[in-house]
Amino acid sequence: MEYLFRLAYRLHRNTADAEDLVQELLAKVYVKRSELKKAHQAKMWLSKVMYHLFIDGIRKNALQASFHSPTDLNADDLASDNPGPDLIAHSDHTQQKIESAYLQLSPEHRAVLSMHDMEGYTLIELEQMLAIPLGTLKSRLHRARANMKRMLTEMRDQEISTASRNLPKSA
Question: What torsion do the CA atoms of 156, 158, 160, 166 make, to the nearest 10 degrees?
Fold first, then answer.
């Protein structure tokens, strides 16, 4: 359950939508629980079903505009040993930039990036799970990474430009 929720959360980036996706998955899987018992790699099979439910939901409801940043993070979620306020602010700002760039990716790019780079699935496993040709997966992963890099670079350049305009002029 923890794995399923984590994957759903990475796809939706919203606790309520992730819970709904897991519930929908479990309702669909319950009917086919005998197949799940026979599955050699149940985790991969469940991930595949979840991915398809996620994409179907995106297509059906055109939900791209309704993805939100998580609001349920607390101080315990920060991975650091007693950081100072400046480190917390910098970390929060960096996390917000990454989150913003991630949410601007298409659902297909977010899914492949999450499942490969965050969950650790190989491209071969994803090819089997998602029934997407290997070349397409490689292309999506490359484009997702390139788009993330481009957006983060643009954000950094914009911050530098703004900061340089706010510097006091020397006489």
Answer: -150
For the segment 82-108, the average pLDDT, to the nearest whole number, is: 75
Pair of tokens at residue 43 = 């985790």
Tokens 């760039």 identify what position?
Answer: 101
Class at the top of the CATH hierarchy for domain 84-165: mainly alpha
Q: pTM to 2 decimals? A: 0.57
One-letter amino acid of 148: M
Q: Please give the average per-residue pLDDT across 100-129, as a whole number.
A: 90
Q: Could you state, in order of their start, the residue ranges of all structural domains in the chain?
A: 1-67, 84-165
Do 112 and 129 contact (CB within 8 A), yes or no?
Answer: no
Element of type H or E holding 119: none
Instruction: Give residue 80's pLDDT band: very low, low, confident or very high (50, 70, 90).
Output: very low
Contact yes or no for 47/7 (Cβ under 8 A): yes
Lowest mean pLDDT among 73-77, 114-118, 162-166: 73-77
What would the two tokens of residue 46 be?
A: 């469940």
Q: What single-letter amino acid sits at 126?
A: L
CATH (residue range 1-67): 1.10.1740
